[in-house]
Amino acid sequence: MSWTSTRRPPAALVAAAAVAGLLVLIPIAWTAGLAAGVGPADAASLLFRPLVGELLLNTLGLIAATAVVTTIVATAAAWFVERTDLPGRRLWAVLAVVPLAIPSFIASFAWVSMSPALQDFGGALLVVSCSYFPLIYLPVAAALRGMDPALEETARGLGLGPWRSFARVVLPQLRPALLGGILLVALNTLTEFGAFALLRFRTFTTEIFAIYRTSYDSSEAALFGMVLILLCLLCLAGEQWARGNARYGRVARGAARRTPPVALGWFRLPVLAGFAVLALVTLGAPLGMILYWCTQHNSAATSVAAVNLPALASATWSSVRLALGGTAIAMALALPLGFLATRYDGRLIALLERTAYLAQGLPGIVVALSMVSLTITLLRPLYQSAALLMIVYAILFLPLALVSVRAAFGQVQRGLEEASRAAGLGWFATSLRILLPLAAPGLGAAAAMVFVSVVTELTATLLMAPIGTRTLAVQVWANTTTLAFAAAAPYAALMAALSLLSAWVLARRFGAAHLP
Amino acid sequence: MSPSFRRNHYAQLPVLAALAALLGVPAVMNTAQAADAPALILYSAQHEQVIDMLTDAFTKETGIKVKAHEGEGPDIANQLVQEGASSPADIFMTENSPELVLLDEKGLLAPVDAGTLAAVPREDSAPSGDWVGVLARENVLTFNPALIKEDALPVSMLDLVKPEWKGKIAIAPSDSDFLPLVSAVLAEKGHDATLAWLKGLKANAQIFDDDEGVVAAVDRGSVATGIINSYYWARLLTEQGAAKTHAKVYHFTNGDAGALVNISGAGILASSKNKEAAQRFLAFLVAKPTQTMLAQSDVDFEYPLAAGVAVNSLMKPRADLQPPAISLTKLGDDQPAAKLLREAGLI
Question: What is the ipTM, given to two decimal places?
Answer without folding.
Answer: 0.72
